[in-house]
Each structure stands twice: as structure tokens, then as C-alpha cells.
Automatic annotation (TrEMBL):
<keyword id="KW-0808">Transferase</keyword>
<dbReference type="InterPro" id="IPR000182">
    <property type="entry name" value="GNAT_dom"/>
</dbReference>
<dbReference type="GO" id="GO:0016747">
    <property type="term" value="F:acyltransferase activity, transferring groups other than amino-acyl groups"/>
</dbReference>
<dbReference type="InterPro" id="IPR051531">
    <property type="entry name" value="N-acetyltransferase"/>
</dbReference>
<protein>
    <submittedName>
        <fullName>GNAT family N-acetyltransferase</fullName>
        <ecNumber>2.3.1.-</ecNumber>
    </submittedName>
</protein>
<dbReference type="Pfam" id="PF13302">
    <property type="entry name" value="Acetyltransf_3"/>
</dbReference>
<dbReference type="InterPro" id="IPR016181">
    <property type="entry name" value="Acyl_CoA_acyltransferase"/>
</dbReference>
<feature type="domain" description="N-acetyltransferase">
    <location>
        <begin position="12"/>
        <end position="169"/>
    </location>
</feature>
<keyword id="KW-0012">Acyltransferase</keyword>
Amino acid sequence: MSLSIEVETPRLVLRQWRGADRQPFAALNADPLVTEYLLPLTGPESDALADRLAAGIDEHGWGFWAVEAPGVAPFIGFVGIKSLPPALPFAPGVEIGWRLARPHWGKGYASEAARAALKVGFEQVGLDEIVAFTATGNLRSRAVMERLGMAADPDPFDHPAVPEGSPLRLHVLYRIGRQDWRGLENGDAAPGGTPVAAA
Ligand SMILES: CC(C)(COP(=O)(O)OP(=O)(O)OC[C@H]1O[C@@H](n2cnc3c(N)ncnc32)[C@H](O)[C@@H]1OP(=O)(O)O)[C@@H](O)C(=O)NCCC(=O)NCCS
């Protein structure tokens, strides 16, 4: 696909990756607070991930976009939607995900960008459902899922890419369907689920 979708929100732009994003992306991937619930990445692994995410957007027109906050910073992290890795027990499907540099937490940027990504997924891509998952202890990420109106599956699952015995292996899966999303867009009450307090 030659045309990549680019998304503007009141404060953010979700766009294709640029070469200049690599350095700040490697810096955020080297921050132990950012990777507290993720598998850590070396500099070359971070560059390779940026390349894979950019290639995904080139291929499909959508993916995990680089996020820019105009007037604040040219790159603050990524937010977007992409196809699930086939090894996951609930694949195939499409997940929504996010990772921001620490100075940009606590401003509502992840939720703002994620709402725009859900809209692309349901309205432009035509998806019926979007999922999200994270290590059970990642309360900040779970709080974003709750803010979006996503509902948690009752049973956690072991992430196959996380080594056995790791405290990060147990994950929780959240889902939102097109109908629930549309209801929320129209101002209906959020579907069930107790909001998770952020750590
Ligand atoms: C997960 C992550 C993206 C969440 O970031 P976040 O900043 O907590 O989430 P949001 O952008 O939605 O911001 C919400 C916070 O901004 C506050 N906020 C401030 N100004 C706001 C505004 N104008 N609008 C909305 N919220 C605002 C909210 O009150 C909320 O504060 P709280 O954390 O004290 O409750 C971030 O912690 C991160 O990148 N973590 C590391 C990577 C990671 O774990 N990714 C997920 C892997 S599955």
C-alpha cells in the first residue's frame, strides 16, 4: 500500500516513522521505568523494532504509528493498531498498543491517541473487535484500556514470548467490539468492568 493513514488529534499527530525517531525511541526503550513490564530492548533491537513498525505501516497503511506532539516534541513514543502475533492464543485479530517516553506520561496523550486509533480501526479498517493485553501488574496500561471502555477477559493467560517463571508472563486481555465502541462514541455509559487505579 502506498498511502499511509496519518491521524491528527487535538494535541497529537500519529504518523509514519522517520529516521530522526530512532534516537529518542532507543532512549525510551532504555528507560527502566518504561520497560518495567516489557522485555527490555538494546539499541539495535530498538532500531529494528522501529523499522518493523514502519514497514507494517507501509504495508497496510496503519500500524503502531510514531506520535508527535506539535509544539512539545517531534517524537514522544508510539500508539496504534496492528495485527496480533500468530503465537498468541487469541490470534488472529488486531491489537491496540502504546509506549510513551516518561516525560509525556500523565497528560492524557496515550488515551487521546488510542481513541483516534480505535476510530481508524473501526471506521476505516472495518474491524469488528480490537484487543489489548499487558502484564497483569501494568496498572497504567490497564487504566488506558479501561478509559477506552475496553472490558477485561476473566482469565489471564501466559504470554508465550515471556520466559516461564518470569513475573511478567501472566497477562490480561481486554477487548472492545465495534458496537460497544460506537455506543461510547455516542455518549452511552462505559461497558462493565471496574476501573483500574494507575500505579
Ligand atoms: C502505558 C502508558 C502509555 C500510560 O500513560 P499515561 O500517561 O498513564 O496514560 P494517559 O496518556 O492516558 O494519561 C492519563 C493520565 O493523564 C492525566 N491527564 C493530565 N492531563 C490530561 C488531559 N488533558 N486529558 C486527559 N488526561 C490528562 C490523567 O488524569 C491521568 O492521570 P493519572 O495517571 O494520574 O490517573 C505509559 O505509562 C507507558 O508508556 N508505559 C510504558 C510502556 C508500556 O507499559 N506500554 C504498555 C505495554 S502493554
